[in-house]
């Protein structure tokens, strides 16, 4: 049993490297801001476009990957995503022009978007129900490890010539490691069974859960697949399905608009307005990354013990409070001592324990088997649309509005999110994917 659990953790960690790529890239950009903005003479709108161009690629990546995941499985697209990201990181760093930088950020986004969708999907499909929440949360753990590694990289490279070029290029290191490791993970047994490859599926499930549990799981999957046709985009609008798809989209979008990624993307801009110099800004990022990592580990202990809904409710309400208090610090110019830093760390701790990991768990669990790949693609695409809007608009927003008004706006979004979750979010703790499907999808008349 210990060997089986260790194997599940191992393959989940490899698959979750996709999350590390996402975390690394969003954080690495924030460290380049103090250097790239004067280098290319970027105004607020141009800075927003430079940051958000990655997410144009992410949107394209998720749209392509939904089809690829259902056609070719989970493993091949993950391999392609790693290769795309490794190459584009180097090309981003050493591009000869601003337009070249933007082009390679978009290409890098294709790899990040594909991996961000495939990693939690794959992990959910190979993990037993009893530990699935913790396993999918590994994806969030690798995101925050990627963020912390990028912050450390930024801090260490800041003193070098062409520092921002080396910052971008450093993303090729984890991407190359991911590329080689993904060859050693198995294909999703659920996808293999759906494609009629029962013997391969049985071998993988036996190694994951043991021979007896494998037969039980195969029986459950076959029951769910019985008489189902291949999911199409039009299936997402069927009665009983469209409500679940809408739920997944809202959960994904509001997580992005909660304000956390504004801190991750533009921490130097935020702390600059509090009067900090560049070195202090980069050090604050290391504190943010460390807090993020520590409380993601806390989340992995809680997610299968407390359940998804309780964590999401507590997180959205708590974040609303912290954001309002951060805004008040700017309103009353309360920048002396550690007050602002403490509130930012409390905000990040709350996000890391709740919304950050649980969102990925929920959207990997709630969609029916036959349309899971397509529905995950749509939900993740909308997540990236929201991410693009935030990355593009925040530099302009925080300069057009006062910092207090900007943070109060995010606090309001978090409170609306709390009310939505209170009414509509399901509890999926300890349930198999097939049980969740039976509860959420009404039987055909």
TrEMBL record:
Subcellular location: Membrane
Record's bilayer topology term: Multi-pass membrane protein
Tree of life domain: Bacteria
Main location: membrane
Transmembrane segments: 7-29, 49-69, 76-96, 102-124, 136-158, 164-185, 244-270, 282-299, 311-333, 339-363, 375-398, 404-422
PROSITE patterns: MFS, SUGAR_TRANSPORT_1, SUGAR_TRANSPORT_2
Residues annotated as domain Major facilitator superfamily (MFS) profile: 11-429
Gene3D superfamilies: MFS general substrate transporter like domains (1.20.1250.20)
Pfam families assigned: Sugar_tr
Record key words, sorted: Membrane, Transmembrane, Transmembrane helix, Transport
Family of this protein: Belongs to the major facilitator superfamily. Sugar transporter (TC 2.A.1.1) family.
UniProt-listed NCBIfam families: SP
Protein name per the record: Sugar porter family MFS transporter
């Amino acid at each position: 049993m210990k060997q089986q659990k260790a194997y599940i953790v191992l393959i989940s960690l490899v698959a979750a490297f996709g999350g590390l790529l996402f975390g690394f890239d969003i954080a690495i950009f924030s460290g380049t801001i103090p250097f790239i903005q004067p280098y290319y003479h970027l105004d607020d709108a141009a800075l927003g476009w430079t940051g958000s161009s990655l997410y144009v690629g992410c949107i394209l990546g998720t749209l392509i990957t939904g089809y690829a995941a259902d056609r070719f499985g989970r493993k091949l697209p993950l391999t392609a995503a790693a290769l795309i990201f490794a190459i584009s990181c180097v090309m981003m760093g050493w591009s000869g022009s601003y337009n070249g930088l933007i082009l390679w950020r978009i290409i890098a986004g294709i790899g990040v978007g594909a991996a961000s969708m495939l990693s939690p999907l794959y992990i959910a499909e190979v993990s037993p129900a009893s530990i699935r929440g913790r396993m999918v949360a590994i994806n969030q753990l690798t995101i925050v490890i990627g963020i912390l590694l990028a912050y450390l990289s930024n801090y260490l490279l800041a003193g070098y010539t062409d520092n921002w070029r080396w910052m971008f290029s450093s993303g090729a290191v984890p991407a190359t490691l991911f590329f080689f490791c993904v060859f050693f993970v198995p294909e999703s047994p659920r996808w293999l069974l759906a494609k009629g490859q029962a013997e391969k599926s049985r071998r993988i499930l036996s190694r994951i859960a043991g021979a007896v549990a494998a037969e039980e799981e195969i029986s459950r999957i076959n029951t769910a697949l019985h008489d189902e046709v291949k999911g199409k985009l039009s299936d997402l609008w069927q009665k009983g399905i469209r409500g679940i798809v809408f739920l997944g989209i809202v959960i994904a979008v509001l997580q992005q608009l909660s304000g956390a990624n504004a801190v991750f993307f533009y921490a130097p801009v935020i702390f600059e307005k509090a009067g900090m110099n560049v070195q202090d800004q980069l050090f604050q990022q290391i504190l943010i990354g460390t807090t993020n990592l520590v409380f993601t580990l806390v989340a992995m202990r809680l997610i299968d013990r407390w359940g998804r809904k309780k964590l999401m409710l507590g997180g959205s309400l708590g974040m609303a409070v912290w954001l309002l208090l951060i805004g008040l610090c700017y309103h009353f110019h309360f920048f002396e001592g550690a007050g602002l830093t403490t509130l930012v760390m409390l905000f990040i701790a709350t996000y890391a324990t709740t919304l950050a990991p649980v969102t990925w768990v929920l959207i990997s669990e709630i969609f029916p088997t036959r349309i899971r790949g397509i529905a995950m693609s749509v939900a993740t695409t909308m997540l990236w649309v929201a991410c693009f809007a935030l990355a593009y608009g925040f530099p302009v927003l925080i300069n057009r509005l006062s910092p207090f008004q900007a943070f109060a706006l995010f606090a309001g979004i978090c409170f609306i999110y709390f009310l939505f979750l209170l009414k509509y979010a399901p509890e999926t703790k300890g349930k198999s994917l097939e049980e969740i499907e039976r509860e959420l999808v009404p039987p055909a008349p």
